[in-house]
Amino acid sequence: MEVSEKFLQTALDYIHDYINIVDKDYNIVFLNEASSRLARKKRQSLLGSKCYAELWKEKSPCENCVTGMVFVTGKPQQTIVWDTDSEGRRFCIEKFAFPILNNDGKVEYAVEIFRDITERKLLEEEREQQRLELGKRIREIRHAYEELKSLQNQLLQAEKMASIGLLASSLAHELDTPLTTISGYCELLSEEIKDDNLLGRIKTISEQISRCQKTIRNMLEFSRKSNLEKTQHNIRGLINNTLSVVEHRLLIHKIKLHKNFDEQTPSLFVDGNQIQQVILNLVNNSVDALPHGGDVFVETRVNKKTSSVEIIFEDNGIGIPVENQKHIFTPFFTTKETGKGTGLGLSICKNIITNHNGKIELENRVGGGTRFIISLPA
Ligand SMILES: Nc1ncnc2c1ncn2[C@@H]1O[C@H](COP(=O)(O)OP(=O)(O)OP(=O)(O)O)[C@@H](O)[C@H]1O
Ligand SMILES: [Mg+2]
Question: Is 198's pLDDT higher than 70?
């Protein structure tokens, strides 16, 4: 070996990458110490043998071999491949190969440098995994923050509602006495006055007072603390009694009442007065939704799957436009003319049903109109 060749061999032997030079038939013409360690043979015995057989234990040139590509293209090649060793460990090799040309400019040999980059790759993979994990965490934190913000808003809103409730109830008590007095005087006046014109005006005053009283009653109900007085109730009887109170009113408005009660409906442990109030609120809404008459359907049924009793309340009235549907249970939301609705009816219903651990949901009724489903735990 010449001195310069010896220098070169020594230098290359200290490099950890596998370095080989092969001819176009994949015969090894040079290899460094790392490569002979890979083949587990002495350097001398490897010279002249096939690189794919000795280094990679293959019967033919490796798939996508960079060296082969150098002989085909005459250009340097590079690739990264994952493989598994005889003990089942995954490893990653970065492969470079470049040509050595003869005097005619043809590729005579290819220099291949194979570098084991398993550790680096695993580290990169781990880092990528950590990056993804971090991204997920950040998204979770952001989501939690949004939820917190929305909860804070709800809390603020609840506080506001609570103070409105307090204000409303004291205001309502203050107003109730003078309104009752005015209403009493109206009655007295209408007994004494004979003039039809004046009687009409007094009637208007009375009607307006009734509206005020309704608003006040709703406000009081809304702000009332939920002290339920629960007793065992036959739910069909409870609904029947409530409906009998409004039957006459429905008749006047040309509304036909259809009842369909499941005989099996068990008795429920509820606050009867409050459930009656829910039904009355729903009836009132149906009357308002049926200005030219129509039908109201009340059904009870047992839902065995959810162990609950369902009260289904339907009318074939004007229905609720989609854009209003998400607001109807919000306090003070009303589409009725000023003075007619307080917008508290359905929020009172929701409070009452929620306090009974139940649910009230709106559905679009097939064939137009509105359908409410109340479910109460059986
Ligand atoms: N059966 C129904 N058909 C059509 N729209 C309805 C029906 N029930 C409720 N709504 C709509 O939901 C809104 C809210 O109803 P809610 O009972 O809370 O208040 P309100 O009826 O307007 O006022 P109040 O109950 O104080 O008289 C109504 O203004 C109406 O637009
Ligand atoms: Mg109402």
Answer: yes
User: Which residue intervals of 27-117 are DSSP H helices?
Assistant: 33-39, 43-46, 51-56, 66-73
Q: Give the binding-site residues of ligand 1, using a 6 Å CB cut-off.
A: 218, 281, 285-286, 289, 315, 317-320, 324, 328, 333-336, 341-347, 370
127 Cα to the center of ligand 2, angstroms: 59
Encoded tokens for 88: 């089942």
Instruction: Tell me the CA–centroid distance for residue 342 and ligand 2, in Å.
Output: 8
236 phi and psi angles, rounded to 5 deg: -65, -40
Show the domains of the chain with their CATH numbers: 3-116 (3.30.450.20), 123-223 (1.10.287), 231-377 (3.30.565.10)
Summarize pLDDT for 228-287 with one digit per residue, the tens. Answer: 788 999 999 999 988 988 888 899 999 999 999 998 888 999 999 899 889 999 999 999
- In angstroms, how far apart are the furthest CA atoms of the chain? 140
Which residue's CA is the closest to the ligand 1 atom numbered 19?
A: 343
pLDDT score, position 232? 93
Burial 327-364 (b: 16+ CB within 10 A, else e): ebbebeebeeeeeebbbbbbbbbbbbbeebebbbebee
Ligand 1 centroid to Cα of residue 289, in Å, is 8
**Which residue blocks in 103-225 are alpha helix, DSSP H?**
118-192, 196-223
Sign of the C-alpha dihedral computed for residues 120, 121, 122 and 128 taken in this order? positive
**3-state DSSP call for residue 279?**
helix
Three-state secondary structure call for residue 104: coil
User: What's the pLDDT score for residue 224?
Assistant: 64
Q: Are 154 and 146 in contact (CB under 8 A)?
A: no
The ligand placed nearest to the CA atom of residue 344 is 1
Task: Identify the pLDDT of residue 352.
Answer: 92
Is residue 248 packed enough to be buried (19+ CB in 10 Å), middle (13-18) or exposed (0-12)? exposed
Q: Which ligand is nearest to the CA of 219?
A: 1
By alpha-carbon position, which residue is closest to atom 27 of ligand 1? 341
Hunting for tokens 């259809």 — which residue is that?
A: 258
Report the distance separating Cα 177 and Cα 198, nearest Å: 25
